[in-house]
């Protein structure tokens, strides 16, 4: 079986370092981070990669992504490089975003005015939701 990538820095330079509570433990040789496979699960890490790249394309800064998703901004930069993600040039619209729980999201949608005149997407963020809205810049 192939060793998983480090969840912290996405390095493949990872070695096995014993079993803890029936789980294989790994150590990252680049950043010295210890982790178990279970915690990582391939699905979960791919999920966060996609989410992080989504946010990046929306114009969210690396530091903000780190704060929102709890993944290091260095990882996000690595993913951007690895998947050769290019942010579209965007001068006319700028994204604003807020984090809402389910109730707040329902309330937001209940008000038609909120849905007018702007593009938006909602993306799941752990147990919350993130609403990204594009507004035309006023010149
Ligand atoms: Zn690492």
From TrEMBL:
Top-rank taxon, per record: Bacteria
SUPFAM superfamilies recorded: Homeodomain-like
Protein name: Helix-turn-helix domain-containing protein
The organism of origin for this protein: Pseudarcicella hirudinis
Domain Terminase ATPase subunit N-terminal: 51-85
InterPro entries: ATPase_terminase-su_N, Homeodomain-like_sf, Transposase_27_IS1
Database matches in Pfam families: Terminase_5
């Amino acid at each position: 079986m192939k060793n998983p990538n480090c969840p912290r820095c996405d390095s493949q330079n990872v070695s096995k370092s014993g079993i803890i509570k029936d789980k294989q433990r790994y150590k990252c040789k680049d950043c010295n981070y210890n982790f178990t496979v279970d915690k990582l699960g391939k699905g979960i890490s791919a999920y966060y990669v996609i989410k992080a790249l989504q946010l990046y394309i929306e114009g969210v800064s690396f530091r903000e992504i780190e704060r929102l998703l709890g993944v290091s901004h260095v990882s996000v930069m690595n993913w951007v490089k690895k998947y050769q993600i290019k942010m579209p040039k965007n001068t006319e619209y700028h994204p604003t975003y807020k984090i809402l729980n389910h109730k707040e999201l329902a309330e937001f949608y209940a008000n038609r005015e909120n849905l007018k005149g702007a593009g938006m997407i909602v993306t799941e963020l752990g147990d919350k939701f993130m609403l990204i809205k594009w507004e035309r810049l006023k010149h």
